[in-house]
Structure formats: structure tokens, C-alpha cells
Design goal:
seven-stranded mixed sheet, globular, Rossmann fold, single chain, 19% strand, 15 strands, MJ1255-like, six-stranded parallel sheet, alpha/beta
Length: 356
Amino acid sequence: MKILYGVQGTGNGHITRARVMAKSFEKFGISVDWIFSGRSKDDYFDMQCFGDFQCFRGLTFAVENGKINIFKTAKQLNFSQLFRDAKNLAINHYDLIVSDFEPVSAWAARRAKKTSIGISHQSAFQYKIPKRGNNWFTQQVMNWFAPVDQAIGLHWHHFGQPILPPVIDVDAHTFLPEVDPKHILVYFPFQSLSNLVALVKPFDQHHFYIYHDVAEPIDQGHIHIRPFSRENFQSDLAKTRGVICGAGFELPSESVHLGKHLLIQPVGGQMEQLSNSLALQQLGLATVCQAFDHQILNQWLTNIAQQGHQNQRIQFPNTANALAQWIAEGAEPEQLNNLVDQLWHQAAPKLAVALS
């Protein structure tokens, strides 16, 4: 089987999920060509597993200091380029088109009347899940940004819906190092580095590892600034006590899987992140704030010191392998409900459910 897999490349979460899927596709003998959109090709890193991937402009949002900049977003959107790229993308020789909320591959499949499936967190928003900031316009964006024939949603809980658990590299987290109680990981690239440094500077009893857009590592006492690196980031995530980040999906998923304490700030004006924050609060998996400040950080650090090294942990199953096997066996829609049921029964007992 040969498939085309499109990945939304604006943030690193979709790419992290794609890396996990790439390993599973190889395991089940599926040949994959990859395309990415949302940023310049030079801005991607650690992409060796995707081979000679294609890169497109696609569609993306402009975020500054933790909030969507509507003016800049509108200015950079180029729908004519999107549809030219979709029209020119050769897809007839593929057996299946898969899109992780990636518009070029999705619209190319729709134009050519090729079967397409979506595997993404965004697909979960087609169902009745916790939502905040949702309205008619945001729902239309979710439905038409990257439209597919069959949308497969991923989330931290099923919420009584046919949604799958997150795609996590469970094999990479089999043997974990001892947690460093003073180690805190910070990943919020939508905020300026100077603001993040100012946030953590007073708390010199902890060591903060901030991943941001820098060329080389920078150490300033208890503050350690690191360039983007998948390998180094995973190493710090494994041993950290707590994670300070935005309300995306992939990093909180890995953090929950590892039992890390979470302090979350949603990107302002983004329905998905506002809804993720609500879900994390309802599930008791994170502390959520509307803006990081010294008082909130101090309270969070105090609380996690009292709670111990490890937070509530939900050990998610190998969703990537299950999806790859399902695709290799023909991606039959009627088998999806069985897949949902099986995977949630492999998760923590409190999340298990039988879906009819």
C-alpha cells in the first residue's frame, strides 16, 4: 500500500505525531510520501525520518505573545496559492490520502475524488466534547480547513464518543529516568523569550529548561535556554517534574502519559486551545491560567511540591500501531468502533468504556 500523508507544520505537535506514525507505517510495510505545510522548509528540524518530503505554504495563524494576531493572520492567508498547490499535487497513484489537519493534501483529494481520512485532534471537534469559544465560524473552520471523507479524532478521553486516544511514542517511554524534583520544562514558543525568562527568574530554587528559537544553548544560572531539538527535548521531558506550556495537544498528551505536573496557558483567541484547557480542567490533569505570572507560578510550584514527584498518570495505548494496522488491512470504516473500544480498554481502567 502507498499513501500520501499531509501534516500541518505550523506547530511541532503535528510533526511529533507524524514521527510516531512513520515508525508504525514502516512496521506494517506501508509506503508513505510526506508533505508539510504552514512554514518555510528551512524552519523544520529533525526531519530525517520523512525522507524527501514536499513542503507547501498552506494556511496558518499568526501568533504573537500568546495571542492570535487577527490582522497578520488575514494578511498572510493565500487561498489562491492553496488551491493552485492542491490542483497541481499529483495524487492519482496513491491508494489513500491521509491528512493531519493539513489543507493541501485534503483539498487535493477532494478535487480528485480520492478517498481521504483525517487523523488529528481537530477531528474530535466534530463530536460532543468539552468546548469553549466555539461558534458557527470556528466550527466551519474546523470542518473546512482540511476536509476529509472520514475524520478520526484523537483526545485525552473518549467523552462517550467514537474518539481514539492520543498518538504517543509509547516505546520511547518504557524505561524512564528518575525524576529531578527541581527540573521544570518550559515550552511556549508563542511567547517572547524575554517574557519567559522574566517569568521564571525569581524562582532560583528550581532549574528551568526553556526551549525556544535560539541558535545555541544559553545558561544563565538556574535558567537554561535550549534550541529546538526533538532528542534533547524528549530527554528533558522524561526527567522533568513539571511542564509549563500552551494548551496544544501533543505535549500535554505526552506529559499526561508520563505523569508530569502541567501548568497550561491557552493561546488567546484560539478555540482549540481554550477547549483543550477546559477538557484538562474537567479531567483534573492540569492547572490552567489565562496568563502566566509570578503569583500563579509560585502557587503551582508550591502545590506540586506538596503533591509529590509524579502527577496522575494515564498510560495511553499504542494508537499509532493500531491505526497503521487498520490502514494496512484496508481502512474499513465499520472496523473503527471496534478499534475505539479496544484502545480505550487498554488505557487506565477509569477511562475504559464499551461503545455501541
